[in-house]
């Protein structure tokens, strides 16, 4: 079940999804987070951030909307407290970083790199699916040039043997164009997808459910979008339209079967997010289920299944 992401080999392909398991201590009460291929932290920014106003969450059919607003303690507190704790329990960590400008991303990456606990970092997930405050709130991941600038600056701050993964938004016309721009700028891999922008109206009070009006849609309802995005980008790689790099699939995974769908589409690793809210053991359960499925189908290794659906069209 081991998998390779850039220069790193992970024991297995299962991860948490950023923002759905805080920074580890909460989930560690339910299972050993070191069992995961990697623990993905909540996106951390340069300074402490209180986030958006309440209400912040709303239930939707087959999912949920969240409008947390990247609340967090800031990178200094993260490297002083959260990252050392993760290292102390033997976790392999994929910190998620964010920023309101390309230079803020670079600063966060530099502080992260200087941490005494950096040895536990197997890669850095660059959450470019957040608004660029220097460009009228445009989401970085909706523009190839903005995406590439962030990735290039982060790449300068992170050691070459530590892969960086650009986390992409599905709210674009052509996700392959954004993916190609990120890889050209230095991304060693891609995480797909972030939440979809959505909105819900409270029909009793006839006003938006969320204090921030719009929010990110996650959960089972978005899985077909994630599968489509992974498929399209993997196809672009297979056709030589962009370099081949590993893809981390995320979006609506609740079961091993859900994970297998993303893997067959081209994902070398899978993140579990929203499912953890009602089943905190979901990441390790999905790993067990996926392992059982591959054994039942007669596969000897996990790598055999990555992208396998691309060679089976029409069979």
UniProtKB/TrEMBL annotation:
Which residues of this UniProt protein bind FMN? 18, 42-43, 127, 167, 193, 219, 251-252, 273-274
Q: Where is the active site?
A: 130
Q: What is its EC number?
A: 1.3.-.-
Q: Kindly report the protein's main subcellular placement as a broad class.
A: cytoplasm
Q: Which family does it belong to?
A: Belongs to the dihydroorotate dehydrogenase family. Type 1 subfamily.
Q: Could you state one GO biological process linked to this protein?
A: 'de novo' UMP biosynthetic process
This protein is called: Dihydroorotate dehydrogenase
Cofactor(s), names only, from the UniProt record: FMN
Positions annotated to bind substrate: 42, 66-70, 127, 194-195
Q: Which organism is it from?
A: Terracoccus luteus
Give the gene symbol.
pyrD
Q: What function is annotated for this protein?
A: Catalyzes the conversion of dihydroorotate to orotate.
The keyword Cytoplasm belongs to this UniProt entry's keyword annotation: yes
Cell compartment(s), UniProt: Cytoplasm
Q: Which reaction does it catalyse?
A: (S)-dihydroorotate + A = orotate + AH2
Give the stretches traversing the membrane: none
Task: State the top-level EC class.
Answer: oxidoreductase
Tagged with keyword S-adenosyl-L-methionine: no
Q: Its annotated pathway?
A: Pyrimidine metabolism; UMP biosynthesis via de novo pathway
Instruction: Describe cofactor binding as the record notes it.
Output: Binds 1 FMN per subunit.
Domain (Dihydroorotate dehydrogenase catalytic): give its ranges. 3-293
Q: Which UniProt keywords apply?
A: Cytoplasm, Flavoprotein, FMN, Oxidoreductase, Pyrimidine biosynthesis
List the SUPFAM superfamilies.
FMN-linked oxidoreductases
GO CC terms: cytoplasm
MF terms per GO, please?
Answer: dihydroorotate dehydrogenase activity
């Amino acid at each position: 079940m081991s998998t390779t992401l850039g220069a790193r080999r992970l024991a297995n392909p299962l991860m948490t999804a950023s923002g759905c398991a805080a920074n580890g201590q909460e989930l560690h009460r339910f299972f050993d987070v070191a069992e995961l291929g990697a623990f993905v932290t909540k996106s951390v920014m340069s300074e402490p951030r209180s986030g958006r106003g309440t209400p912040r969450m709303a239930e939707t059919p087959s999912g949920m909307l969240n409008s947390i607003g990247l609340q967090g303690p800031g990178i200094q507190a993260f490297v002083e407290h959260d990252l050392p704790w993760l290292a102390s329990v033997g976790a392999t960590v994929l910190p998620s970083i964010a920023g309101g400008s390309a230079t803020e991303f670079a600063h966060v990456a530099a502080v992260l790199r200087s941490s005494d606990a950096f040895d536990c970092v197997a890669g850095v997930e660059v959450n470019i699916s957040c608004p660029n405050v220097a460009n009228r709130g445009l989401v970085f991941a909706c523009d190839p040039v903005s995406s590439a600038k962030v990735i290039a600056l982060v790449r300068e701050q992170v050691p070459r043997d530590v892969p960086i993964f650009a986390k992409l938004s599905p709210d674009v016309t052509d996700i392959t164009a954004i993916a190609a721009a990120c890889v050209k700028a230095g991304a060693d891999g891609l995480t797909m997808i972030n939440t979809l922008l959505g909105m819900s109206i409270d029909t009793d009070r006839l006003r938006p459910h969320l204090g921030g009006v719009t929010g990110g849609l996650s959960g089972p309802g978005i899985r077909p979008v994630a599968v489509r995005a992974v498929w399209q980008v993997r196809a672009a790689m297979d056709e030589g339209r962009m370099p081949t790099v590993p893809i981390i699939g995320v979006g609506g995974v609740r079961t091993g079967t859900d994970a297998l769908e993303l893997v067959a589409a081209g994902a070398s690793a899978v993140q579990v997010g929203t499912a953890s809210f009602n089943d905190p053991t979901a990441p390790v359960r999905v790993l067990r289920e996926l392992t059982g499925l591959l054994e039942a189908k007669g596969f000897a290794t996990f790598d055999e299944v990555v992208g396998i659906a691309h060679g089976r069209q029409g069979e």
